[in-house]
UniProtKB/TrEMBL annotation:
This is DNA mismatch repair protein MutL. This protein is involved in the repair of mismatches in DNA. It is required for dam-dependent methyl-directed DNA mismatch repair. May act as a 'molecular matchmaker', a protein that promotes the formation of a stable complex between two or more DNA-binding proteins in an ATP-dependent manner without itself being part of a final effector complex. It comes from Arcicella gelida. Residues 444-586 form the MutL C-terminal dimerisation domain. Residues 209-327 form the DNA mismatch repair protein S5 domain.
Amino acid sequence: MLDIIQLLPDSIANQIAAGEVVQRPASVVKELLENSIDAQSTNIQLIVREAGKTLIQVIDNGLGMSETDARMCFERHATSKIRTSDDLFKIRTMGFRGEAMASIAAVAQVEMRTRRTTDELGVLIKIEASELKAQEAIATPEGTSIQVKNLFFNVPARRNFLKSNPVEMRHIIDEFQRVALSNPEISFSLHHNDTEVYNLPAGKLSRRIVDLFGKGYREQLASCEEETSFVSVRGYVGKPEYAKKTRGEQFFFANNRFIKNSYLNHAVMSSFEGLIPEGSHPFYVLFIEIDPIHIDINVHPTKTEIKFDDERTVYAIVQAAVRKSMSQHNLMPSLDFETDVNFANNIFQFNGSPFEKTKETAVSAFARTTETPFREKTNLTNWNKLYEGLNRQLDDFERKEPEIEQTKVDFGDTTESTSFLLKSKANDIGSNRPQRASQDSEASTFQIHNRYIISQVKSGMLLIDQRAAYERILYEKFSQNLRKNGGASQQLLFPTKVKLTTADFHLLLEIQDEIRNLGFVLSVVEHDSFMVNGIPADSPEENEQQMLEGILEQFKQNESELHLEKAENLARAMAKRSAGRYGNHALTVLEMNTLVEQLFASSNPSYTPSGEVTMKIVSLSDMASLFLRP
């Protein structure tokens, strides 16, 4: 019988390896940028066309390579980073396996130009599908320029699995941001289809964060630093009030390498416990410096997962560093036993006369009182809670007065009596449906704390969560608009320019057709900006910038937690965003009855699209049990 086991050709072996290393264009970007960093570059340019499907080019001013090294770097397991097995536990470079270039060359057309400072001429190498096409000496600038063209041209099945250009570009931006964050001393630039997306000069970490994510991050950064003999932690954490519902702006770097570690993320989240709403995620960029002998990087081909030999100690130090930072920047409530609040704002200075006040004292007192501390703001909020409900009781009292008629306004002999009704935009939703306006319904439907609606039913009492009910109703409407490819739009008298982060801009590009079907009228004006000419007719009164940012945040949250189609995801995001505006809103009896009718006319009135309960029936027996009656 013939032997059946044989050695695979290098070309096939490289394609198999490429399946792990090169998953999408963003994987190529990551590997090439890390190679440029290992080459001690100070200026790195990334040029992308068609989200990396057509071209990915990285140009650096690093050390360059000799002719022999340039050819050897495309061989499997050829690397300059390690020599012995012990070197695996002393790694401080980004790459070390020697698989990336061979894997990229196996599934793309690669063209590399490189020259060292000591050489007069550089070298040009062209490789297609692991096959060398050309190698010659050329004149080229110092450093290395690598072009990766037509990714997966020889593997059509892999190319078909690639997503749309906006989706792939978002992944490229994610990788670019991680590399740029970890190396603020290096200048970076990113161009996509001849448009400059980023131009990041070398500088401090704080400036790099602002350049990447926007000027709004300048106000929320709190420095974090802790140094021990075992590990040191440095970086920035965001203030609690800026926490978002979506993940994605949490960055851990171990020896300047981006890592994903849920255990260390828990250490940061526990420090924010009680300061941010449940389900929110704070911003942080934290760098962990540790002796490489205490970590194992060789765990996953993407090198984003590492193991610590003493993970608990690292956890405790990270947690302590974050808590120390928040305490130093007054981001958490604390008790100060050394200050007497009775004398904290001493406005008057008694010099002979008890009512003599100096100009200097008055100015300093004014400066103190105009800057209200966080704790004082919290106390003011708590004091306001003591008077909650008084306005509602006053309204109830006025309704009982027989001589006051709230639905009539008398302007005198020259004006007729005019009837008016407080109107909510909820009335516009399904207004063609019959109303439940009867005397019985008016007497049996009412609202509690502007949050819940109670209606009498035969079996007892129906309790409806107002926000959840709106979410179900609005979801049905938005889904219908997306199916019909047309939602009513309200044109703006003055169009508004909305500037987004680069990642959000490409996300909006990805879903722009669905956004237009909801009623938004948008046009691209710059590489990171849209002009909003119209909004959905029944959208809440809100700033267009905040509205779009909120919808995108909810969309990203759904995307990270659920796997939904774009239309379904957007309908849910829009409904949840809009329903939040009506969750604590006073309604008239007519509006409440309309809301109940629309809820029961929906496809699934008992639950929101995300599975939350919208209503609960409390039977007569349940109510009797509250009073211990049989």
